[in-house]
Amino acid sequence: MSLASDLSARLRRLLRRNRQESELDEELRFHLDRQIEAGIGDGLAPDQARRQALLALGGIERTKEEVREASGVQPLEELVTDLRYAGRALRRNPAFVIAAVLVLGLGIGASVAVFAVVNRMLLSDLPYPEADRLVRIYEQNSPTNRWALSAADYQAIAAEQRSLDAFGAVQLGDAAVSTAGDPRRIRVGRASAGFFQALQIPAFRGRNLQVEDEDAGAPPVLVVSYGFATQLLGGPDQAIGKSVTVDGVSSTVVGVLSPGYDQLAGIPVAVWPALRLGPPTRRGPFFLLGLGRLKAGVTQDAVARDLAGISAGLLTRWNSDWKDSTARLTPVPLRAALVGSADRRLGLFGAAVVLVLLIAVANVATLMLVRALGRERELAVRAALGASRARLGRLVVTEAMIVAILAGLLGFLVAGFGLRFASLIAPELSRIGAPSLDGPTLMVAGVITAAAGLLVGLAPVSVALSRRSLASLRSDELRTGASRRATLMRGALVVIEFALALPLLLGTGLLLNSFVRLARVDPGYDPKDAVSVSLALPGIRYPDGNATIRFWRQAAARASELPGVTAAGLSSVIPPQDGAGSTNNFNLVDHPVPPGTAEPVAPWSVVSEGYFEALGVPLLDGRRFTPTDTGGPAPVVVVSRAWAQHYFPNDRAVGRQLVSGGCYECPRTTVVGVVGDVKYQGLAGSDEMVYEPVAEYPQTSMNLVVRSRAEPAAVFQSLREVVRSLDPELPTNETTLEERLHASLANPGRWTLVLGGFAAVAVVLAALGVFGLMSFVVRQRRREIGVRIALGAEPGSVTRMIVTRGLRYAVLGSLLGLGISLLEARWLPTLLFEVSPTDPLTIAAAAVVLLVTAVLASWIPGARAAQIRPVEA
Which of 235, 396, 456, 675 is buried most, with the most CB atoms less than 10 Å from its CB? Predict the structure, then answer.
């Protein structure tokens, strides 16, 4: 018989216990009466016959006990009895139950929520068939430097690879999208057919993109998400065949994605036009996200070797404008590409949650210990009446498990609420999907709850069920022995709480220190009174560079004439942001890199005259751009101070020449000015930037930056009117530069806030722990303290005695916590700015906070001890 069927049979017998007991009683009474009748027939008196019958049957109750043991029901009966007794005992002390369930439930809930995030990001399958075969393909020339593919890369991989079942690419960008109403500027992903073939997801309605859709002469088509079709196209069934205008091009909807696929391969866009690429004229630029599916049985190393051969061919083919022989096409598992460095952040917050849970367990264990001490006489009486140590221990642990189960139920609710804020600790979840309380998470929740219950029950069991406690019923012996053991145990638990609280407090201090330093960073520009309007010109209405430049010049000129406007200019990127927009390789004419080595790469921005004044960036050397900087035989650039100091640390950068984009046959580019550093790559990023005039390299997507004394709302309204006067169908995205600057601090602020919340909980629990311990010590030593006061001890000395004892626990816990903090250092460096994980001032501040907390928590029971009246003691 299997374990499950055996347990099921025992449960059925337990549920039918009353009926079985009645039948057993009738059976035993029948045999007893027969035995009595036989004894009377042998000449015995009725009383003698009854005694002999009882002896022959072994006693009815003993016989019934033997029957129960044989049926296997007795252990279940004892468990039910223990549960019933523990429930009644806990109901008599609701304050203890509420406190224990709240403390433990918060710890369990936070642990379950973090596991749900970890499970979603690192353990669960991505929503694609055989997702472990999906890889992102990058260009890479060092372990930490990789970038997107170029059109030349994409076409070479598609034609020459032999290790992938499918390969495709996506070009991300903003576009003016219109269905039936006003156009809106949204993110779109121009995808190849191979991209959908690699993902292997069928369309919900219609079809996915196909190879024929990529031909230049084919009708423009696109695929939309289920949400886009539902909200803007009347539903997925009605969407097929409808027209959606993307950058002025009317495209037909040929497919609708299934519900839940609001993003593909971590790319959150709702509109997927067909990607169309012409023959490349150079190796760059790099703007495509490559995605491939490995052939069955092919390893990632085999794909890397295949791509290495393609990289060598590309280097030979484009040697005239690409000199970096160290760059290689590199496959990266899709999950690793989506998660990025989030595993370190998850490790940090996961460790923080575990520490909080352990502190909560220690705190509840202390409460259980005090409760067990109050029941020591009861347990000793039970032992004297024959109860085994195992049975008594099970009784105590049963109470702990009931508390843990109630806390687990509360923790389940806390976890569900906490998952709403999961993006605070893992913004990368937006690329993978929302976590949920699924089957694996529920199993882990059960394991955490059971483990917490057992840990909580260990302390009271070890103290209350000691041999000395159960061997004596004398009140003084019980009180003395138990108090000593309980004090040691509670002291150890308090030390553990302080040891676990210090790493949390230290991590919060480091993040706060980093955040303060980051907030003090000079962004290099004046965000006050500056606004930005982002615009994207559709290629069908602006087919060449002259039309594009004409629009940008008119927009900037009309914006500068608005009332209250002091400056207006255009830029392809605006600060601060994570990433610097476009990057470009270059080579200095007077000291070029050796042949075959990688050329320097720098962030590259296209700006107009007036941009530096509108942003508030000072000119340090040379000149700014003028309307005469139109490229041709004399291209020019302006560089940031950091770029100039990097490449010309001892000389002027103005007047120096460089070759950009690997075009050695093109005219040399001259540096005509040096401006102040601006934080384009986030406040913690690099300051290097190269600026190119808009007339030299016109782009269809730009940001109109305006500095005005008027209110932002009025400025935005005026700018919208300017744009409509030039192109009524052009959508705009508007923001103030102050809003962008504040948004750049949001992520580090959230990390500090979340970890600070954990640290605050830990410190409060540690304070409650030392407060409870010192209160227990005062009650335990009440007579001694009364004698001290009677003999002339000053109240202050009594208070100092209690505070000093509490401080000892905090000092010992802090020393142990410093050792734990060394493990924390491995996760923190990527989250810190200009702060070392072992910063001595932050460590000292964290320790001081804990020690002050211990002093304050110990002072309250110490003050009470000083007020003890000797006569009452």
Answer: 456
- At 648 the pLDDT is 93
Return the pLDDT at 612. Answer: 94
Helices in 136-278 by DSSP H: which ranges? 151-160, 193-199, 226-232, 236-239
Token output for 829: 């460096």
- Yes or no: say if 274 and 254 are a contact pair by the CB < 8 Å rule: no
For residue 497, what are its two tokens? 């709480």
Euclidean distance between CA atoms 561 and 555, whole angstroms: 10
How does pLDDT run across 600-649, given as a tens digit for each residue? 888 889 999 999 999 999 999 999 999 888 877 889 999 999 999 999 99
Which is more confident, 178 or 8? 178
State the DSSP string of 616-642: TPPEEEE----TT---TTS-EEEEEHH
What letter does residue 431 receive in the DSSP assignment?
A: G
Q: How many helices (H) and strands (E) does the chain have?
A: 27, 23
Report yes or no: 332 and 174 within 8 Å, Cβ to Cβ: no
Could you tell me which of 349, 339, 424, 295 has the C-alpha nearest to residue 126? 339
Looking at residue 578, its amino acid is D
Distances (CA, A) of 72 to 5, 76, 84: 13, 8, 20
Distance of alpha carbon 763 from alpha carbon 502, whole angstroms? 8
The pLDDT tens digits for 818-845 are 887 777 666 677 777 888 888 888 888 8
Q: Is 176 exposed, middle or buried (0-12, 13-18, 19+ CB in 10 A)?
A: buried
Nearest alpha-carbon partner for 475 in 372, 392, 381: 381
Tokens of residue 715, six digits: 């400025």
Tell me the per-residue pLDDT of 80-95, one tens digit each, with 9 for 90 and over: 666 676 667 667 777 7
Calpha distance 414→116 (Å, rounded): 12
Structure tokens at 741: 């600057």
Closest CA to 616 of 654, 580, 575, 655: 575
Q: Which of 659, 651, 647 is nearest to 688 (CA)?
A: 647
Distant-in-sequence, close-in-space partners of 367: CB < 8 Å, separation ≥ 6: 96, 99, 100, 772
H/E stretch holding 452 reads helix 439-464
Strand partners, 705: 532, 569
Beta strand pairing call for 669-675 and 636-640: parallel
Are the CB atoms for 736 and 592 separated by under 8 Å?
no
Checking if the pLDDT of 432 tops 90, the result is no
248-269 per-position pLDDT tens digit: 888 999 999 999 888 888 888 9
Encoded amino acid at 182, one letter: D
Amino acid found at 489: M
Mutual angle of helices 389-418 and 376-384, in 10-degree steps: 140
DSSP H helices, 269-341, are 300-317, 334-339
Alpha-carbon distance values, 202 to 195, 207, 234, 548, 785 (Å): 12, 7, 21, 39, 79
CA dist 777 and 784 (Å) reads 11
Distance between CA atoms of 164 and 823, rounded to whole angstroms?
41
Q: In angstroms, what CA-CA distances link 408 with 83, 115, 441, 455, 756?
A: 17, 14, 13, 14, 24
Query: DSSP string covering 521-553, please?
Result: S--SS--TTEEEEEEE--TTT--SHHHHHHHHH
- State the pLDDT at residue 248: 80
Q: What is the pTM of this model?
A: 0.73
Give every CB contact of residue 873 below 8 A, 6+ residues apart in sequence.
Answer: 782, 783, 785, 786, 787, 789
Residue-level length of the chain: 873
Instruction: Name 751's Cβ contacts closer than 8 Å, sequence gap at least 6.
Output: 345, 424, 425, 511, 831
